[in-house]
Fold this protein.
Amino acid sequence: MKYIARMVRGLKLGALALMLVGCMASTENDVLYVVKVNDAVITYTQYRDALKRLIPSDRNYAPEEITELKKDLVNELVEEELVLYEARRLQLKVSEAEVSAEEEVLRKDYGDETFRETISERYGSIDKWKEEIRRKLLIQKMVERVTSGGRVTDEAALKYYKEHIRDYYRPPEVRARMIVVGSYNEARKIRKRLTPANFAVVAEEASLGPENKAGGDLGFFARGEMPKEFEAVVFRLGPGEISPVVKTDYGYHIFLVEGKRKAAKEDFASVKKKIIEHIQADEADRVFSEWIREQKKISKIEIRRELL
């Protein structure tokens, strides 16, 4: 159910790295099936290719982890076929315009050259890839049909807000810049020439931290989000103040506090949209879970576990 649930939450269906069925060689494995769902079969080749994407060769998994991953994969493939079976029964269609729109999005994301190379490597031809896109879009249409429910009212959203009010408190935060170097002497020399006005420039020139390109900007953060040694310094400083040299396991640091935000509560109006989306996603997951369980009960499903 995890795979379909991702679709319910609006997963970009064309994402090349997530396609389950790739370019298949013409071997006996193309007719040897691992799973049969009603009148549809998942061949050994399809299962093997999906498994390769799920378990990269450059990663090591414990045997029990591999067993669990295989179990999840088979369940996802079964659910996908159940959704497709019902979509075909209802005669849902995917237009060429919808496929072209998905293709255009991916071309923009990947660039023409990378797009063509990836399609060629994974699918052999653009036509085979388009068939897979069509398949995924058909699944999306069916899932949306199953999970389309009633509108979430403002009253329901407000009720959720009040019941989860603790989630909408923002703790005190500080915005700081940092310079980090490898030796105390270097840090001391830098500290002598620092001012709030030149701190960002010096950070870009001298700091060893990855945030140096942004002038050492660490952004806003609350307690618990940075190493304790950082927080012990910056939360004591006022806006515009520069710290002395601070030694940590990471090197020698100097901080500039640029601003502070007091603890605050996000009001309902500012979070209402997110709350509604959250409620809708939860309800869609619940509805789909019930629907897929019913489909499994009334469908003919055969899994040849000796081939997994």
